[in-house]
Amino acid sequence: MTIHQVQVLLKVIEYGNITRASEQLGYTQSAVSQMINGLETELGVKLLNRNRKGVTLTRIGEKVVTHYREINRIWKCISDEVNMYQGLDKGQIRIGTVPSIAAKVLPKLIGVFKKKYPNIELLLFEGNSESIVTWLNHSEIDIGIYHHLPANLYFSKILDDQLFVCLPKTHPSSDQQMVTISEIIDSCFIMPNMDCDQLITEVFDEHGFHPNIKYKIQDISTILTMVKEGIGLTILPELSIPDTIPNVSICPLNPKVERVIGVAVKDPNSLSPIVAEFYQHVRNLIYK
Hints:
Radius of gyration: 23 Å
Structural class: alpha/beta
Family: Belongs to the LysR transcriptional regulatory family.
InterPro entries: HTH-type_LysR_regulators (IPR050950), LysR_HTH_N (IPR000847), LysR_subst-bd (IPR005119), WH-like_DNA-bd_sf (IPR036388), WH_DNA-bd_sf (IPR036390)
CATH superfamily of the domain at 160-258: Periplasmic binding protein-like II
Strand content: 15-25%
Distance between the termini: 49 Å
Oligomer: single chain
CATH architecture of the domain at 160-258: 3-Layer(aba) Sandwich
Order of helices and strands: HHHEEHEHHEHEEEHEHEEEH
Number of strands: 11
Largest sheet: 7 strands, mixed
CATH class of the domain at 160-258: Alpha Beta
Keywords: DNA-binding, Transcription, Transcription regulation
CATH topology of the domain at 160-258: D-Maltodextrin-Binding Protein, domain 2
Shape: elongated
Number of helices: 10
Domain HTH lysR-type: 1-58
Pfam families: HTH_1, LysR_substrate
């Protein structure tokens, strides 16, 4: 087994297709197939199910690939150690985050970091918080930035993300400084089908109310357009709200409700030097 074989297998799994993986790697399909066959022969088990639609992991393949991902992570750490020793600022950091953070927090973080380390490649993977936790546990990413979830990971808070009520200008409470749950309970509610939906449900439950949910929508722009047209109102985290929205009032909840945004890693003591540098860079964030 070579690390190159491992990396080729992981790329095939990522794309679910030998042809697409070959194109990305710059190899022939035959060469990629031979490397995977070599791994299977060495182990004495079949790692992939192959069919016309692509490839999937076998049951033993799923277990083996977990260790291969860890081997690849360790190899990245070794490479980064050597690069840092030789004074070379090169390497790769895989970052998992949710869309709202990618839009409002990461640009500033990445901009400052890239000025110091221009040759470091930063790869972004967007998903929900549950996906990011899974990616971290499987060593598919190096760092996750998301709202806090109970998980067996090292999570450090970097900022609070306050919830706001978004109302059409025609709503009776649209000109208030703050809005209570009781003031919106009878209104048509548009539930964001995203990371914050559980927290919003908990807020209603704590006040003994059930929202009048008529729509569940994932896309933020669609939700806010519906609010603008007077179809209903919604509650969103501050990071998800655009800076300006015509004909929509943005009011904080009373009492204040916030969710914790932070950075997480699998084990801070086993990070490569360059990943550890970015990890500390994020932890030092003061969001304004």
